[in-house]
Give the backbone structure.
Amino acid sequence: MINLRSIRTRLALLVFAITIAAVGFVFAYVAPPLETNLREQRLESLAEASKRFSRPIIDARDEDIESLRLIVQRVGDRANARVTLLRVSRGSLGLQTAVIADSTGGARQDDLQFEVALEAARQQRIATGTEASRNGRLGQAARPILRGNAVERVIVFAAPLSDVDDNVAFVRSRIAIAGAIALLLALAAGLLLSTRLAQRIKRLERTARRVAAGDLSGRFVVDAADELGSLAFALDDMQRQLGELDEARKRFIATASHELRTPIFSLGGFLELLQDEDLDEETREAFLTQVREQVSRLQKLAVDLLDLSKLEAGSLELRPEPTDLGVLARAVTSEFQPALARHDSHLELRLAAREVEAELDPERVAQILRILIDNALAHTPHGTDMVVTAGRHDGMVRLQVRDFGEGIGRQALERLFEPFYSTGDGASSSLGLAIANELAERMNGKLSV
Ligand SMILES: Nc1ncnc2c1ncn2[C@@H]1O[C@H](COP(=O)(O)OP(=O)(O)OP(=O)(O)O)[C@@H](O)[C@H]1O
Ligand SMILES: [Mg+2]
């Protein structure tokens, strides 16, 4: 079945069309000039013969008709052409010619008009041309014979052009045969090539559909080092990344639901216990404290999850403005004074002498800074000091939070910015660094440890 929209059909047709056009060109541009050339050559050699062999006829101007006929016949034999001698007369109808003698004996003279003879008489020099006869086309060369200033007679040398026509017909038929073979080959090669291409595209399409339907196990096969091969390679790469993303998404949902379930179950447990009438005031107060803690943990988790999902969906709106990081660091660190005091830590601020200004969303930079200082407090022993630096580095602005705790293990570094990843006991939701990292990226910055 032929589908005109398919690449396969179009390619095959294109190859076919190009070949037809090529053959057509050869036909149109080779055959006609070939014919003209051969004919010109024939006429030239006739003109040449008329120069070489005419002398006896010219000299026999005053012979009687019988000897003229003999001479014409002999010239015809020598020139290997049909030779005709014509008389030129000027009548009321202008120039006219009449045959005096013909090397074939004059029997067939009435079939020819000898237009070239008139032409030669008019121009008073050798003229060439062709004329159709009963035995095919003839080439003719006419040579005028002058008496005084007027043309008295014309000698016409004629030879058949049939071999020229045969040669041209032969060349034409060869071109046609070669063209037909080339067409068949082109059609076959075009079909073969385009079928193979179409098959490979089809295979890519099938795999793509499988992947689109959620089956990530399908593989794009790189079957050649051509464009389709590199497309398959790119698709394979894309599919692997999709697989990784899918994994990450599943892990995220599993962890998130686990993180949400734990405090909710624990809340349910405490509420049941609180319903007990015989509870003394002290225990009730302890339970309520636990409930409050769980609720605030849930609150923080809900806010963090929302932030993170907004960041990943790209829907978090940033409001960049010229911001001095020094001023910002001072403001944020001062918020932490009570927490620092509780932790018995000293925070040193190191600010560059000049102002450190950049186009940033101050709210979001402050959020990152809070996450980092919070970590320096939460994941270090009591009494650990820290340093916050704001300055320029390599043409960029840089904010740094450094603490003197035990630090972070090398193998943890790789996964540190993943949501829910923690090296600790898991009491926190561990979304802080994931959010900070996303925020930094959104502002074309980079968070590093
Ligand atoms: N300054 C630090 N010193 C040592 N470990 C750290 C430090 N900052 C982060 N970590 C490790 O990296 C993990 C991820 O930190 P992140 O801020 O993302 O989560 P979290 O602090 O556990 O929870 P939260 O979402 O409440 O911030 C932490 O659990 C901790 O194990
Ligand atoms: Mg944290």
